[in-house]
Amino acid sequence: MSSLVKCPHCGLRPREEFTIRGEVATPRPSAGADEAVWFDHVYLRDNPRGEHREYWHHSGGCRRWLVLSRNTLTHETSEVVDASTLKLGGGA
Amino acid sequence: MRDYPLENRSAFSPSVAAGAAINLAPVTGGFVIHVLGDAKSDEAALKQVLAKIAPELGADVRKSAPNQWFWVGDADVSSERLTEIQAGLSNQFALADQTHGRVRMILSGPSSRTVLAKGTMVDLSADQYAIGQSAMTQIGHIGAMITRVEDDSFELIVLRSFAGSLWDELHHMMAEFR
Ligand SMILES: [Zn+2]
After folding, report:
1. pLDDT per position as a tens digit, A74-88
2. Residue A41 and residue B47: Cα distance in Å, rounded?
3. For B137, which of A60, A64, A82 is closest by C-beta distance?
4. Which residues does chain B have within 8 Å of residue A10's beta carbon, measured at their own beta carbons?
5. Tally of CB atoms within 10 A around B100
6. Cβ contact (<8 Å) for B65 and A64?
């Protein structure tokens, strides 16, 4: 199955136009948080079966950072939004 | 903005006679200017202000990203004229001259869509892709903006350092129609 992503700015584009930068992490710990908390935040990742939220960069198109939901089982993508909308209350 | 005089002369020469099934020609001269708008800017406002302050250059703008466009035209624009135009724009829009940085070429002929389909997945069918419509995308691995300029004619804008590579690649893609 070919991976097509519907960029909110450019429309349906092939996966080759995008750079994937991994899951949308939990909120950043406070600067003084325990080392274990920081270690978890920086290095430890879940490997979920099913829905997964990830950062994608549309490097071959509009060059915007996007957040998309991808099903790790079927590779189906849904709910692609510009990453800037997270600041407006989408919650990272 | 460039601070040296640019002799805008293409290194490429038209590859196939006009009227053939496929023709690739460089655009010589003219300008490419990157327009960066603020978060509230829109294309209608941009075209309106360009038509007002630079009517001799046309307002041929192609959207490249949210609030960003490429403004292109066939006239030559001096640095002085560009400074004037920037001064005439509100702070809403900033211009970055890309004439030295990007090359335009035209792929035309009845086979042009078939050729481009080998390199891009953007659907360029006549009923899907209107004249004047453009997309920032990739042809193979090279970033390029594709604009349908006429019925069977597409303008490609590519970074100058990749132009030779794209030119070669297009010739391979065109080979069966020559
Ligand atoms: Zn995009």
Report:
1. 888 888 999 988 876
2. 47
3. A60
4. 135-137
5. 13
6. yes
Collapsing DSSP to helix, strand or coil, B81 comes out as helix
Using a CB-CB cut-off of 8 Å, the residues of chain A touching B162 are none
Pick from A10, A14, A60: CB nearest B143: A60
Which strands sit side by side in the sheet containing B93-97, from one edge to the other? B60-65, B68-73, B31-37, B93-97
Closest among B71, B73, B66, B103 to B89, alpha carbons compared: B71
DSSP label at residue A26:
P
B171 SS3 class: helix
Q: Which residues contact B16 (CB under 8 A, 6 or more apart)?
A: B22, B23, B24, B109, B174, B178
Say whether the ipTM exceeds 0.90: no
Distance from chain centroid for Cα A55: 2
Q: A63 CA distance to ligand 1 centroid (A)? A: 6
Q: Is the dihedral of CA B55, B75, B24, B156 positive or negative?
A: negative
CA distance A57 to chain B (A): 13
Please count the residue pairs, one from chain A and one from chain B, whose beta carbons lie less than 8 angstroms apart.
29
CA dist B56 to A63, B31, B60, B81, B116, Å? Answer: 31, 13, 12, 11, 32
B74 CA to centre of ligand 1 in angstroms: 28
Please give the helix or strand (H or E) that residue B18 lies within, else none.
none
Q: C-alpha B52: how far from its chain's center?
A: 22
Taking only the tens place, the pLDDT of each residue in B138-159 is 999 999 999 999 999 999 999 9
**First CA to last CA distance, chain B:** 40
Which class for B91: exposed (0-12), middle (13-18), buried (19 or more C-beta within 10 A)? exposed
